[in-house]
Specification:
The N and C termini lie far apart (about 45 Å). α8 packs across α10. This protein has eleven helices and five strands; from the N terminus they run βαβαβαβαβααααααα. The chain is an alpha/beta fold. The chain folds into two domains: about 120 residues, Rossmann fold, CATH 3.40.50; about 100 residues, Arc Repressor Mutant, subunit A (Orthogonal Bundle).
Length: about 240
């Protein structure tokens, strides 16, 4: 299978900004990525402020950032990137392969999540997928049911989503499917959704399968996260305004 053309400048390469406070780590990651096809590290910086200053002029395709950056920190950092560089994908580089780190990355709004002991090819693949508009973090989420539950709980209680990750010209789901996702975001089972909407449980299961097929996802939690982060559905108003610790 041949390579797809990467987004970026006229060369077709993915333009990437690397953010990590440790110079040695930045040097190592930069060297690693320089050996990967179609990825160009156009800047490596030590803070979100420095990355934002570069993004205002450089317009990178991807920002690869350390999970444990100092102030303003992960959540505030990603939200600022969303506001000031809306078309840029964010990939998080974590130091541990654990549920807490994945949870933080998902709730912050990252497109991808890679542990720093991953193979270079895995990191490069995640960057390419994120740059193309995919959300490879969804696969990690689907493989960790305990994290999926925590994410739903956080979304129900905190409603921290930021602006939509991508501007979609049209929503690829029907009004009924969006209603099903709204109820799923509230933690309802298929049986409960069927009762509220006046359909059979079989119908709701079929619609959920259709939603996952349309969005190319495998888990209902992924579908909820996908829809909320794009602004297709929202949570109850009383939930808005709280903060993530």
């Amino acid at each position: 299978m041949g390579h797809q053309e990467a987004p970026g400048d006229g060369s077709g390469s993915i333009q990437l900004v690397l953010v990590d406070e440790h110079p040695l780590i930045r040097a190592g990651v930069r060297t690693m990525l320089e050996n990967e096809w179609g990825i160009e590290v156009i800047a490596d910086v030590d803070s979100i402020d420095a990355a934002l200053a570069y993004c205002s002029s450089g317009r990178p395709d991807v920002v690869l950032m350390d999970l444990d950056l100092p102030a303003p920190g992960l959540l505030q950092g990603v939200q600022r990137l969303r506001r000031e560089c809306a078309d840029c994908a964010v990939v998080i580089l974590a130091h541990r392969d654990d549920d807490d780190d994945l949870y933080r990355a998902v709730v912050a709004g990252a497109n991808g999540h890679v542990v720093d002991d991953a193979q270079p090819s895995e990191l490069a693949l995640t960057i390419r997928r994120a740059a193309s508009g995919d959300e490879p973090i969804g696969q990690s989420l689907a493989e960790r049911p305990s994290v999926s539950q925590r994410v739903l709980e956080a979304y129900r209680k905190l409603a921290i989503y930021g602006p939509p990750l991508r501007r979609e010209e049209e929503v690829p789901l029907t009004a009924r499917q969006l209603t099903i996702l709204r109820y799923a975001a509230e933690g309802m089972t298929n049986r409960q959704i069927a009762r509220v909407m006046g359909y059979s449980e079989h119908t709701i299961k079929g619609e959920m399968s259709a939603i996952l097929a349309e969005l190319c996802l495998k888990h209902r939690t992924e579908a909820v996260v996908h829809a909320v982060r794009r602004g297709w559905i929202s949570l109850p108003e009383p939930m808005v305004g709280e903060h993530l610790n």
